[in-house]
Amino acid sequence: MQEIKEKHTVAIVGAGLAGSEAAWQLAERGHAVRLFEMRPVRMTAAHKTGECAELVCSNSFKSRSVENAHGLLKAEMALHKSLILKTGKRFSVPAGQALAIDREPFAESIGVQLKAHPKITFCNEEVIDVSELINSHSHVIFATGPLTSDALAASLQDILGAQYLSFYDAIAPVITAESIDMEIAFRASRYGKGEADYLNCPMHHEQYQTFITAVQEAEKVELHQFEDTRPFEGCLPIEVMVERGPDTLRFGPMKPVGLEHPETGERFHAVVQLRQENSVGSLYNLVGFQTKMTWTAQKEVFALIPGLENAEFVRLGSVHRNTFINGPALINPQLNLKSHPNVFFAGQITGVEGYMESTAMGILAARQIAASLENRVESPPAPDTMMGALIRYITETDPSIFQPMNANFGLLDPPEKKMSKADRKKWYAERALHKAAEYANQV
pTM of the entire structure? Predict the structure, then answer.
């Protein structure tokens, strides 16, 4: 690694969406940046090129409508003059309400713009020594994404603690609280011990058998070549459990023992438990229901669970490779480490999911570092905004149950008065954009 001569230089590791955005935001504010990208010197198993901001899994940035959570997030990002969003619009392709991108010219353009900026020094090398990087720069952002190199991950573990860096998602579906049928679901804790923190969806024998059959017949997602099924053994997908026997789920996540109905005393053949997912209680997680079923299949199969017939899913289940930190245990709302205030994280490694969510974290990390370099204090965005709601989720969720999350309206505090779904979305957007504009217009 070359000697650093500018003591105020910011190092950014990873030139994906978040790293590229953070570099641009800082450079546009006049701050010197060294942007490290190991590709194409060292490739990942998923990337095809050495270009910045290469889109791997999809070419869609999702909805443009502000009455959709992803559209609202983009509207907030536009207030910050997002490089990724602006360039994405330039290379958009027809996709109805969605913003879809022509991948190759998009990535090429991002690289050209970054490398032409006088405040950005581009470094094609793999960072393997975290301590050295921290000691030689004023601030560091790690934005290395789900395919962080083994060497860098090992070095990160030295400062984070091995237990706080995950390498695989085993995500259970999440639904909105208001979409649960409380005429069927009931609150109870096993054997009546402690607070009744769980919602329980009961099944009789025939309902359970129908559910098991549906899981067996559902379409599944195949693993990528670079994914290894061995790490899943400790957190098995439900379809794998079903393959091991029809009663495996009843002795696992759907165990009915000690969960009699609190009013009738009725006992059940199986029970699906729902656990509160966020601090405001607007989202619930299907406990133990990580799965490799396709998203379409999940919606059909999980609608067979009594009480969830009309469930609104804000996140569907998955099991895949993904490097991310346990944000609530490690980072502040400013996206810096509690133990190392000048070390920041951005992008998917923070525990957000999605292209725009990752990019938004790059914007926020850059703003915080800029404030530090300019001897200012800047608060995070309000949790009434989509960007602020994501920050609240990745820093305030119970660390023991933390899993990555995408943008959704369930992360926002709901209105106090009852309103239709359409009116509520409009209300969310108006409130968020007002607060987002105030935040973006700070110094």
Answer: 0.85
